[in-house]
Amino acid sequence: MEHQPPPFFKTGPTPLARLLIFTALSVTVLVADARFNYLPTLRQVVAVMVYPLQRIASAPAGIVRRVGEFFVTQSSLRADNARLREESLANASALQQIPALQAENRQLRDLLAVRERLEVRVVAAETLYAAHDPFSRKIVVDKGSQQGIRAGQPVIDQSGVIGQVTRAYPWLSEVTLITDKGQLVPVQNLRNGLRAVLAGTGNDGTLELRFVPLNADYQNGDRLVTSGIDGVYPPGLPVAQVSNVIRNAAQPFARIAGTPLAGVASYAHVLIVQGQRDLPPRPPDEDQPARTRKPRKN
Amino acid sequence: MIEARALRHEILLPVKPGFIAFTLIAALLLNLLPWSGDWLWVKPDFVALVVLYWCVEQPRRLGFAVPWLLGLLMDVADGTLFGQHALSYTILAYAGIVLHRRVQMFNMRQQVLHVVPLLLLAQAVALLVRLVAGADFPGLAYFAASLTGAALWPVMGHVLKLPQRPRLDPDQV
After folding, report:
1. Residue B1's pLDDT band (boundaries 50, 70, 90)?
2. In this complex, do A131 and B33 lie within 8 Å of one another by their Cβ atoms?
3. Rounded to two decimals, what is the model's pTM?
4. How many residue pairs bridge chain A and chain B with CB atoms within 8 Å of each other?
């Protein structure tokens, strides 16, 4: 039997073999994540590993901002102050009426035996960075499951809905913006109460209303608010303003574009809305006869 | 060409493993800086650049496991599909290791012509993964990151070689 001399240098498997091993590993992980959603724990572990880097990387921006805040000029402070005072005066009259209105609302709801609207609780969070992914619109904020953030909670800013928490890590969470292509928000036209589904287009600053019939009453400038029928977004939060309505009789649906009202692309402070609404139980399926009491005829 | 040879045959100190780790972490930090707006489109993938650099310069040092793990970290940080960056860095590392002899024949500026197709390949792999997963093609601007990355290659090579350059006068401490 012929003996090969032992190799001088031990180099392990060839690069091609190692490429195939790691490619197979990547594809396994990809399929497990995309198809079966198997790896939330592994993702959490990696998230904890990368967390310090994320905080360090976003620290300089915070320092720059704080230095900028320190050097605001007095005139801009005075202008701000005057504006805020005017705003608070304007809001004061509305605010004073709120307790009375709430009491009245409660009484009326009692009379009608309607469930109470949920009082929303919000957690303020700061945007760390926008995820560098050209295929989606996501931001990362600095509050996570340790602060009670859960996937699915809506995220708003001072002027409207900006998105929804899609993944909560221990100290960070990932927010998918309403402009993301896969993100849907059930909305209602404030002017006439028409309900529709608002979808992101993948571009900053444009949204579209899906499956709206040609004759539906939408005009430029209509404000769209959340309808609340999804059980995710609390009802009545402003979402978008209709910016363009195209009715083409050759197509089954009208093309209605909207612009988000909230600062979706401005990445500042955001509010995460907490609190599960206790929804009525799911209605029985169609094929099963509904157990309802028949009104007895006398 | 003579200049290229001269540069190649420059005597460099051996690279320290700690320095490689440091550059990789620095690249991760650069990737995680709060880039926003149009900068997101032209921002090169610094981790891909540094991985490719070490695979070309020191093909025995980095191996495949480190790029793969860095890819997982980037996947979590960017909220992309788990394994997308891992796959693209793995392929980049392979290309770097296989082509290192050829690429090393050129000086840093000439290497750019080799780096562009490799970075484009890595991006195309990520694109393919996302297209299979159901995303839309984001437009040709997607590939701008490879071009800016390749433009940074000579600068990066100069900076990363600094600790390996011997002092001009060894008597001077």
Report:
1. very low
2. no
3. 0.79
4. 137
Rounded to an integer, what distance in angstroms lies between the CA atom of residue B120 and that of residue B99? 15
Range of the domain at A21: 16-64
Quote the minimal CA–CA distance from B88 to chain A in Å. 9
Give the CA count within 13 Å in the CB-facing half-sphere of A275. Answer: 12
Non-local CB neighbours of B44 within 8 Å, separated by 6+ positions: B119, B145, B146, B148, B149, B152
Q: What is the pLDDT of residue B163?
A: 86
Give the HSE-up count for residue B131: Cα atoms under 13 Å, Cβ half-sphere. 9
Is the domain of A40 the same as that of A125? no
Q: How many domains would you assign to chain A?
A: 3
Tell me which residue range forms the domain holding B88: 2-164
Strand partners, A225: A188, A238
Residue A281 pLDDT more than 70? yes
